[in-house]
Amino acid sequence: MQTVTVNASKKYDVRIGTGLVDNISEQIAPLMSGKKIMVVSDDKVFALYGKKAVDDLENAGFTVFSFVFPNGEDSKSLETYSKLVEQLFSEEFSRKDLVVAIGGGVVTDLAGFAAATYQRGIGLVMVPTSLLAAVDASVGGKNGVNLPQGKNQIGTFYQPSVVLCDINTLETLPVEEYTNGCAEIIKYSMIVNDGLFELIRDNEIREKYEEIITRCVTIKRDFVEADEFDLGKRMMLNFGHTIGHAVEACSNYTIPHGRAVAIGMAAITKAAVVNGYCTEDTRMQLDELLEQYNLLDDLKYKAEDLMERVKVDKKNSSGMLRIVIPKAIGSCWIKEIYKEECLKWIVLGGAR
Ligand SMILES: NC(=O)c1ccc[n+]([C@@H]2O[C@H](COP(=O)([O-])OP(=O)(O)OC[C@H]3O[C@@H](n4cnc5c(N)ncnc54)[C@H](O)[C@@H]3O)[C@@H](O)[C@H]2O)c1
Ligand SMILES: [Zn+2]
What we know:
Elements: E1 2-7, E2 11-17, H1 24-28, E3 36-42, H2 43-59, E4 63-69, H3 78-90, E5 98-103, H4 105-117, E6 123-128, H5 131-137, E7 145-147, E8 150-154, E9 162-166, H6 175-191, H7 196-202, H8 209-226, H9 241-250, H10 257-274, H11 280-292, H12 303-311, E10 320-328, E11 331-338, H13 339-348
Parallel strand pairs: 2-9, 3-4, 3-5, 5-6, 6-9
Antiparallel strand pairs: 1-2, 7-8, 10-11
The structure holds nicotinamide-adenine-dinucleotide and zinc ion (ZN).
């Protein structure tokens, strides 16, 4: 097992290894001063892993409740959130008790937001079961739900007490969800120069989960420690996301997040070559890696349509926009541009 310690407003461990769900009570018991645990999961993950975790926690003497909702992004809503906090209230949860989120990013975001806000914050354990949640959503403290008008519009920063990443759970992940997580891993390999790029080029990610997830979590940890509340450096984690978010929105969310980010990374890199910020060789290396993970798709939307979506992205302030531009493999920088300039970048990135 690997452990990455995050020293943010709360200090906590991210543990990455095998068999953590089977013995979840051992991991959790030292963190508990109360008796009650609310296991939050979606229907799919609950059937696979949630039930097992409930049994183990009950056998260890905890009073365990479960809150299970239909899988999918549609559940990341104020409606599901209010059902969850109402259940915490009706079961008389106090601040000594614990919420345990077992699932992908939808579960960790929703349960994180509920734990952060119920009685102004109760204990939270993250058990990511998707690759994307393991390398990204479960670490760093961002949580939230969607509004019908926009994704992630409601949320807080709230760090968990521990993150338990059981790589055995990733075995049942559908291939498209694996691919989605790979896109975020490729992103990390482009922003930090520590050999991750070569590691995932020369090895299939799923063959080296423990090492690769640990490296990604370490990279994220470093950005979170430097800028927990996303006021500066943490923005680097948004490589590929400005255009990626616009692609997601233009597709009416039929293109999943990771795949959209991959399109965004390829597009911004293409534009960076034309603008003289990085070499054609860098672009080719990135494209080859994206291709290797079945993530090389065209930017098939109209530049004006993408631009409309960029304008409403919550990461934008006043007339300016910060975009993450690649310099080389493992090295990116943040550039502030006028929103209007972004259209040029999108066109150079290959939009219609
Ligand atoms: N808070 C953050 O920092 C952060 C970062 C990145 C993404 N996110 C959020 O994460 C969400 C996306 O996360 P996601 O891609 O994990 O989506 P998800 O939670 O919807 O999971 C994807 C699908 O995989 C299934 N699944 C999960 N684990 C499984 C397993 N082990 N075996 C079989 N099926 C499994 C789920 O039931 C679901 O159908 C988005 O809402 C996004 O906004 C948050
Ligand atoms: Zn992302």
